[in-house]
């Protein structure tokens, strides 16, 4: 079993455990191989029973909140379902966008085909909205902020693909090959704002970039 040395704990109290998930770690048990390490299998050894509130794709790094009791789980589930949670992601994308800010409103249908991709479907898709903002431009790529207003599967990745600016090294929505600059999906959950389930206070948690994300930005700025 893996240990939690590579997991950065952002915040912990009696109601919440907030972590900076590394890329490559499953949020939930694998449907085909439940023995594969995932968040709860690693963290519950040290923190006791935990409840998963939301998930990140396996290759996405960044901030995740877990509930430490049933009341917190119920409260957080309500916040997510009622869209009271603010999420900010950072992506390094292919190409230099011809916009500075953009709202993408494209309905998505998920789990399409053998690869279970999310595709734009104007007739049968579910409402999906993401606000994008360019943070930094490079020669043929850019650092982009994404704020999803809805929570569809692969929403940010699918919307970037439809802008012709897929995240670097995206195996599902990119050109089909990894970028020589980074071997993993260049998407990081940067911050998460929730109402604390015990105090009612609005709190914001941020997750630092992982080392490979920092390295590619340094390389692109040269």
Residue share in β-strands:
25-35%
| SS class | alpha+beta
Total number of beta strands: 12
Subunit arrangement of the protein? single chain
Average pLDDT works out at 93
- Using the 3D structure, state the CATH architecture: 2-Layer Sandwich
Largest sheet report: 10 strands, mixed
Question: How does this structure look, described?
Answer:
By secondary structure, this protein is α+β, with helices and mostly antiparallel strands. The protein has a single domain (8-221), classed as Pseudouridine synthase (2-Layer Sandwich), CATH 3.30.2350. 18% of the residues lie in helices and 33% in strands. The chain has four helices and twelve strands; from the N terminus they run E-E-H-E-E-H-E-E-E-E-E-E-H-E-E-H. The strands form two sheets. Strands 1, 2, 3, 4, 5, 6, 9, 10, 11 and 12 form a ten-stranded mixed sheet that branches. Strands 7-8 form a two-stranded antiparallel ribbon. Strand 7 and strand 8 (117-120) form a beta hairpin.
